[in-house]
Design goal:
Elements: H1 9-34, H2 45-100, H3 106-129, E1 144-147, E2 155-158, H4 181-234, H5 238-264, H6 268-271
Antiparallel strand pairs: 1-2
Length: 274
């Protein structure tokens, strides 16, 4: 190759190779810094698009989880209130049985009636306060639907169970008493019916609560699987990147030396003119 000072082909080749090494080094350092092999569309457009779609599903499942969580809380509050009402009905049955006894005198029956009325009022208090996030399943008689899938197409219906006095479940009237033997005998039958109905309502609420639990667990597993899939697509293998970084650093140093040698080649021209 002819010697010259205007054009240094060796230096140009060395510079090109060094620039390529520097670009590769930047990519490797970026992967190490972010932990991602595909951090943006320019890294791999197809993989990035797939990963973004999966990320949107994970985000949607997060919203679904929140919806299911709220629904679960509403149902659990209704269950707790319903169980308390069932316990109160058991006590009311005891008062009604005692008041219906012909051997019970007027004074004792009057005391039993006061206890009965107090228990009845407590049912009304529980029903009116069994709300979560503005939803009361045992008072309003209005149910709702909870999201169950990321695309919103699947939902879980949560039906209300109206446990208010004088309703179809708790048939005890809001003014019900056991102040006479006859009233107590009639009330005993009413309390028994109400207790049976209330326990059935609790069973239905319990089934819905269990279904919500199952759906929440399933969605959590799906979300975890999606996150693992995203990781498989875009995460960098840091052991590989670490080895590649060391290799490129050595290559960069050698490239610098090669460029230095190539840049020094025109100096030999001076020896021809001594």
């Amino acid at each position: 190759m002819a010697l010259g000072v205007n054009t240094n082909v060796g230096a140009m080749v060395a510079l090109q190779n060094l620039s390529k090494t520097n670009r590769e080094l930047e990519v490797t350092q970026g992967r190490i810094n972010t932990g991602l092999a595909v951090a943006g569309a320019k890294d791999n457009g197809g993989i990035y698009a797939i990963a973004q779609a999966m990320r949107s599903d994970v985000a949607s499942l997060g919203a679904v989880g929140q919806s299911l969580g709220r629904a679960k809380s509403v149902v659990d509050v209704a269950l707790a209130a319903g169980e308390s009402i069932s316990d109160l009905l058991v006590q009311m049955k005891e008062k009604a049985v005692a008041a219906a006894d012909a051997s019970t005198d007027t004074t004792a029956r009057s005391a039993l009636n006061e206890d009965f009325v107090a228990l009845r009022k407590q049912i009304s208090s529980i029903v009116s306060n069994a709300a979560f996030n503005g939803v009361n399943l045992i008072n309003t008689g209005t149910g709702f639907q909870s999201l169950a899938s990321a695309d919103g197409s699947s939902k879980i219906s949560v039906n209300a169970e109206n446990l208010s006095l004088g309703g179809s479940i708790i048939t005890i009237a809001a003014s019900g008493q056991v102040n006479t033997q006859s009233a107590a005998s009639t009330m005993l039958s009413t309390v028994n019916t109400s207790l049976t109905n209330a326990n059935r309502a609790l069973a239905r609420l319990g089934s819905v609560s269990k279904r919500l639990d199952t759906q929440m667990e399933f969605n959590s597993k799906v979300s975890d699987a999606l996150k693992a899939g995203i990781g498989n697509l875009v995460d960098a293998d840091l052991s590989v990147e670490s080895a590649r970084l060391q290799s490129l650093q050595v290559k960069q140093q050698l490239g610098l030396q090669a460029l230095s040698i190539a840049n020094g080649a025109p100096q030999t021209v001076l020896s021809l003119f001594r």
